[in-house]
Design a protein that fits this description.
five-stranded mixed beta sheet; 8 helices; alpha/beta; 2 domains
């Protein structure tokens, strides 16, 4: 009997510990940033003339509601408003084409390839996903600018509205040089190539680029593991057609191999 009681107590403790772990995990998962990687938090991006906004609501189960016109957070962004520093912001409600270009999952995971397509459609170089946690005032902002990694940070309203807090956070994030931003892992540029054409390739489901440059520079780019070359032109000027297979921006890859983009 004593042994059965002891085993029962052990099982109860194990059960309580499991429940506690699940509660902590659920809480973290349902925070406005969800499971965004901590090591990409707090970087700066180049200043922008205007930023495209995608309002997102994080549900209690960690899922996201995007482009829901009945959502109060989405309605908060209906009227365009500048950041405290004066940068214009315009929220996009999302039409059927937008929903084909980028899914809620891709938005939540800041898929650069998908965001690049959306940016091309609207003629912007920067997209920010502003996330409000359902039932709380907690807000997180994930931001991307052409040629850069995505980054994020969270912000407490502290007497401001959620939107005001998010707008202030945009100023903090988009505070870098307007001409250049260091990209982790990039080498010093020793050559230059030009992106002369871009199209959406239905077969690959991603953007395909034509890059012109010196043969040695093109080979340097083609040898990067993130690049898949579809064709080569050895005439003058030399060019290659390629697509990026890991979702990053092509200019980021170019800088990463030590080249600059003309």
């Amino acid at each position: 009997m004593a042994e059965q009681i002891r085993r029962r107590k052990i099982l109860i403790r194990q059960l309580l510990a499991t429940v506690a772990t699940l509660l902590v995990s659920a809480s973290a998962f349902a925070s406005p940033e969800g499971i965004w990687p901590e090591d990409m938090r707090g970087f700066s991006l180049p200043e922008q003339e205007w930023i495209m906004i995608i309002p997102v609501t994080r549900k209690a189960d960690g899922s996201v509601s995007v482009w829901n016109r009945n959502d109060s957070w989405n309605r908060d962004w209906t009227v365009p408003k500048a950041t405290p520093a004066g940068t214009r912001t315009v929220a996009v409600n999302g039409d059927s084409e937008d929903m084909r270009i980028v899914s809620p999952f891709q938005i939540d995971n800041m898929s650069i390839d998908s965001l690049s397509k959306l940016a091309s459609k609207y003629g912007t170089a920067a997209i920010a996903v502003v996330v409000s946690e359902e039932g709380t005032d907690n807000v997180a902002v994930a931001a991307w600018a052409k040629g850069n990694y995505a980054t994020w940070d969270s912000v407490a309203p502290s007497g401001r509205t959620r939107r005001e807090a998010a707008l202030a956070m945009l100023d903090d994030i988009y505070s870098g040089s307007s001409t250049s931003v260091a990209v982790p892992g990039a080498e010093s540029a020793t050559g230059a190539v030009s992106i002369v054409a871009q199209r959406y390739n239905q077969t690959f489901g991603t953007n395909e680029y034509r890059i012109v440059g010196e043969r040695s520079d093109l080979e340097r780019l083609a040898n990067d593991p993130a690049i898949s070359v579809t064709s080569r032109n050895e005439d003058v000027p030399s060019s290659i057609d390629l697509w990026v297979n890991d979702g990053r921006d092509i200019e980021q890859i170019i800088r990463g191999v030590g080249l600059s983009s003309r």
